[in-house]
Amino acid sequence: MKSLSEIDTVSKRSSRAAGYSWGIAEEVGKNIRLLEIFCLPGIKNLNDFLNCKKNIKLENIKLITEDNSANKSQYCPVIAGVNFLDQIKTLENLNEIKFKKIAYPMLFLPFVSRASEIVGKRILLKLDEKEFLMSFNNCIYSNFSKKEIIKIAESVSIKILKNEDSFSEKEWKQLYKLSEETFVEENESLKNSGAGAGLTDND
Amino acid sequence: MNIPLRDPNVVMKLSRLGSFHQSRLSFLRSFLKEFKDWDYKRDLFELNEKGYGTAVFSFKKKKRVYSLICFANELDENERSDRVIATKWDTAFTLFDGVPTKLDIERLKNEVPKQEIGRLSYKELTLSRANKSVRIFNHVVESLSNGVQPDKELLAKVGYLYRTTAVYGSGKFGLADRFRIKNREEIYGPFRLEMMLVYLVRQFTFDQVNHVAKNRNPKKAVNLDPEICKSLGIGNSTGLGMAPFIVNHPTLLNNWIYAREVSLKKIREIKNVSITESNLFKDCLKKSIKNITSWNTESEYQIKKIKYLLKDLNQFILFLENEFDFNQEYPFNKLYQHLEENYQEECVEYVVSMMMEPYENIVAPLIKEMSSEEDKYFNIPTERTVLELKTIIENKYSEILKIDFKKKENNLNFWFISKNKEEPRLANRFDENGSDLEQPLAVARDIKKLYENLLVFKNNLTIAMFLLSNADLRHVVRRAFIVEKFPYSEIQDNTIGKEIVPIDMLRLKLSFFGALKFDPRSDKWLRICMFQGAPLPEQLKNYDEHWVYN
Question: Are strands B233-238 and B160-168 parallel, antiparallel or unpaired?
Fold first, then answer.
């Protein structure tokens, strides 16, 4: 089994060899490590992408907006990812961000996961029919579990979710009431000896 | 009195970093302190009469066990080489997490001796190999088998029976990643498991030499005197691999230096120093002179440094004895100021290390802060502005900005990874091929380029927008935001200039390891000795913490 350290180093070096700057290659190294931690096919997709890269017409997106469509071919997942991560603070208030055609979208995914941690919000990423719910870069919930290479996502949607409870107020109150059963009812003497008792706060 | 921390522009210069010496903060000393209460055991010792075979040594506390597995193999004299390109060694070692089964040992017997081309697993923590100092090993076997102890003078000249040529950890070749073990309190200090491996290897070398001598002459042979064992360490040949490490781990580097600087600051802030404390300082300092007089090297560069160090120290000791009064306020601060005014960097840093000796209470809490969670600082705060980044660079890299990289001498070298051994190398970019594959270790040059590029952008532009057209500088943008938080994370010098002495970078790291007797073999590799004078495993429960000077 390869260690995460080996995965990081080899991914970084191979990305540099494929023409990315050292700073971007460092991002890819960390991302592939992340994908492999989450049991997603990082090395498999990176290897295929870097080896096919010369034969694909890739477009480098710069400024990301609500609707992003590659003019001629497909967006480069690494450049799109780096810029999504870098611009996340300005993108977080948009309801939905859409991309048409991202090559090897699994390589785009970890940038989105890291963005979730930066903004402190869960992010729902849809790559065509595949869904990934990312929680603060700690875990990824998905309906996709195949170890396969995804060459392109025709339609990509990113929703930055509001920080909301996943339960009703009624359910919370019910549970809170139960938790109160660990408290002790105070009698008068205990009240009189509590912190601040007997003092005036207006002195 | 509030003494400021020393200026990174002074401390982080390569000549200063290359003058560092071991101290109480050193990893091999903090390792011994942490593991002194652990149970040491030799679990397996299956060597033939020539000393070849398998051995296992362990440290155990409650349910935690670390086992060193040793494989000693016969090696043709022509195959013995300390070069990193070697493929066979006298011995190979791995530190195993727990108690190895027979199956584990069988698996590792096939992999560990292969070193870089073998495959390890998450059960193994560190990996190393070592070669005999043949002359010394044979002399010791010969003497012991004849019932006499070896020539101490000869042993003192070398200082070890074996020398390692690499110690690997942290996920290399399939070894356990650090995340698997980072929450174990006993390894909060950096490189603790690497230190354990080297320490147990040292014991293996003594047990092996005794075993071979005994087999050669069972009736007459004696064991190596424990006092002689104590006087021997483990040698190490170290090349450029260590140099990029300190550039590639900026927050870790900061935490090492920061611990040293905070120690010095706190010691300088002590108003009244007790007689016990001042005596301990003076005692360690005087005794340590023997580590310098017994420091053998053929390197003219190092001979010169040792000569000046010895001269400075003797003069400083005279000053301490005849002119200096510890019975005054803030004596260590006055001593430090005197040092900076009168002595060379090597002597200043030597005495700074000595100042820590009486102050376990100051140093011990800092040791636990010397590791780093580097990933926490990886993301670039891209919402910040060009003005903020420019200000950081002006404040934190002021010396670097003065370097003119258009001059050939300042841009002479490049760092690369060699294809045959995947090891870092340094070469002249105008004489050699390969500078297009340069590693991102020319931080000073790239920081200066970043600053120049920033000047043409509007101050209120975000870094996210700046990076859209400056992706080639992303690696140094990241570093600049790290140095903002971690003042000692960056070498404040040019790592590709004509004047670079790469062994300065090695010495910095090795001094934190606790190495003694740096012996440069060129400007790119050196030999050192570790654990020389250290207590033996059986003596750990009750040992003198100032053993380095005894």
Answer: parallel
Same structural domain, B388 and B410: yes
Closest to A5 (Cβ–Cβ): which among B170, B417, B464?
A: B170
Residue B396 and residue B303 share a domain: no
In a domain, B527, yes or no: no
- Work out the number of other CB atoms within 10 angstroms of the CB of residue B426: 21
Is the Cβ of A101 closer than 8 Å to some Cβ of chain B?
no
Three-state SS at B160: strand
> CB neighbours (10 Å) of residue B303?
14
Residue for token pair 């392109």: A152
Q: Which domain holds residue B53?
A: 27-239
Measured CB to CB, residues of chain B less than 8 Å from chain A are 121-122, 170-179, 375, 378-380, 382-383, 417, 440, 463-464, 467-468, 471-478
**Tokens (6 digits) for B412:** 């002479």
Binary contact (A23, B471; C-beta < 8 A): yes
Please report residues of A whose CB lies closer than 8 A to that of B478.
Answer: 23, 26
What is the ipTM score, two decimals? 0.91
Residue A113 is assigned to a structural domain of this protein: yes
Q: What is the pLDDT along chain B (550 residues), one digit of tens a residue?
A: 899 999 999 999 999 999 999 999 999 999 999 999 999 999 999 999 999 999 999 999 999 999 999 999 998 888 887 766 678 899 999 999 999 999 999 999 999 999 999 999 999 999 999 999 999 999 999 999 999 999 999 999 899 999 998 899 989 999 999 989 988 999 988 899 999 999 999 999 999 999 999 999 999 999 999 999 999 999 998 888 888 899 999 999 999 999 999 999 999 999 999 999 999 999 999 999 998 988 888 888 889 989 999 999 999 999 999 999 999 999 999 999 999 999 999 999 999 999 999 999 999 999 999 999 999 999 999 999 999 999 999 999 999 999 999 999 999 999 999 887 778 899 999 999 999 999 999 999 999 999 999 999 999 999 999 999 999 999 999 999 999 999 999 999 999 999 998 888 999 999 999 998 888 888 778 889 999 999 999 999 999 999 999 8
Cβ-based neighbours of B247, under 8 Å, separated by 6 or more: B441, B443, B491, B495
How many structural domains comprise chain B?
3
Structurally, chain A folds into a number of domains equal to 1
